[in-house]
Amino acid sequence: MKSAEIQVLAADLEDRQQTDRARLIETHISWVILIGDFAYKIKKPVRFSFLDFSTCKRRKFFCERELFLNSRLAPQMYLGVFPIYASRKHLSLTNNNGRIVDYAVRMQRMDTAKEMGKLLAAGKVGQKQIVTLAAKLAAFHRSAKVVQRHVDLRALHKRWAELLTVQSLTKKRLGEGCAAILQKAVEYGKRYLKFNSAIISERYKSGAVRDLHGDLHAGNIFLYEEPVIFDCIEFNNDLRQVDMLDELAFLQMDMESYGELELSKLLFEEYSKLMGLATTTAPKGLYQYYKIYRAAVRAKVQIIQSGSASDKAMSLVFANRYLKLLETYISLPPFDPMV
């Protein structure tokens, strides 16, 4: 589907539901139509090095994967996969007289005031909420399927190298200083892999790598009495099947980007109690390595999204914030990645 067609579909939803006006959110890989009590997510017909939504058949497959995988953590939110029908210049999710041209994931809309990122920005996240979140995350990690495979160091090096695909765009939109931070982060990651591959291999052997969420940042969490964790990675198994410590470091990094260092520490402590020391007593250098990588990935995503997001300025604010956090991490001891 194209942007103009999404507008037609949104108009049809308005006509049929007769509630409020539809609101459209766009990222670099999807559109989301918000209307009434529901949200409809449609995947863009795009192909990148990390995903392929280029055909309708593939988009249907990944819509179904999204529904299945997210039902592990947010079954109340993910409601089903629905075909999108076309007849002449009309598009609809309900009128099945036409031909199927695409698919949408239907979701229950959540209270945006409870989005963790917004609450962190307002300084309204309490210790009790973090304790509850740590419990849910630990329970999910304990039950997650162990991934039995050997570490692919070449693939890990490639992931670091791919971060530099946005270096010129970073320089253009945020300046030479920010592009230099990204370069330093990649150099740090490659050095760590060069001298510490045995540590990462041991994590694979010990069962620490599991089928997890893969994109665990504050924007993908609603802090209800029982937290709702949503929008896991469905389009690339390798990005979702990660070290449990990597996923924890991701969320802590994001919390620290809001300046919430004490809450980040509390999350780690509570999670550690529930998971046992064996899960989290890895070398400090490994934990720092994960935080640096995750901050760089988030910066990259925001820089890419700034080209298509409805709020370009906000995407660049987030990108700059992650890059500054990267700079802080790189300067912290142990700076030498051979630790």
From TrEMBL:
SUPFAM superfamilies linked = Protein kinase-like (PK-like)
Q: This protein is called what? A: Aminoglycoside phosphotransferase domain-containing protein
The organism encoding this protein is: Mucilaginibacter aquariorum
